[in-house]
Amino acid sequence: MLLEHRSQIRFCRACGSAVEHVVPADDNRARAVCPACGTIHYENPLNVVGTVPVWDDDQVLLCRRNIEPRKGLWTLPAGFLELGETTAEGAVRETIEEAGAEIDLGPLFTVLNVMRVGQVHLFYLATLRSTRFAPGPETIEAQLFREHEVPWDEIAFRTVRKTLQHFFADRRSGRFGVHGVHCDDIA
């Protein structure tokens, strides 16, 4: 399903002229096009990367957010991918920045499309090397939870809730796979 995207681009980033929203030749959708210099401005989704850090096969590390949005709620360590890093490198960096946790990165676990905000969230499985955490300024605290201890009513984002649900379901079944999810339909 292709959602209609309303571009927020009003002025050309190359020359500053007002743009027109038209379908360029050999394209299939409207883009912000500068009539003065001809620059076509493409808008693409942002990638959020993170981990499901696991200790002793049944505990997951969650971080209580110290920033908006959803300050005070729990999340997996994750954040926006930076230019110049792979999704795996970004997931490790975010885990260190948010939880101060040392991990061994595992395989890609969930790919979650959040089209209404133009994002794709990618979570990797990870094994914690220790239970010593040193949360950064974006995190109030980092804590391990077993499935029955997870503060489900205080999970910050639907993508995190869905990833945790898949993790615990896969753990019970004894088989871990990659899960693709369209999160705009999740309550």
Q: Could you provide a short overview of the structure?
A:
By secondary structure, this protein is α+β, with helices and mostly antiparallel strands.
Description:
The protein is of the alpha+beta class and 187 residues long. The protein folds into 2 domains: 1-43, Ubiquitin Ligase Nedd4, Chain: W, CATH 2.20.70; 46-185, Nucleoside Triphosphate Pyrophosphohydrolase. 16% of the residues lie in helices and 34% in strands. The protein has 2 helices and 11 strands, in the order βββββββαβββαβ. Strand 8 (103-114) and strand 9 form a beta hairpin. The longest helix has 16 residues, at 158-173. The radius of gyration is 19 Å and the shape is elongated. The model has no long low-confidence stretch (mean pLDDT 94).
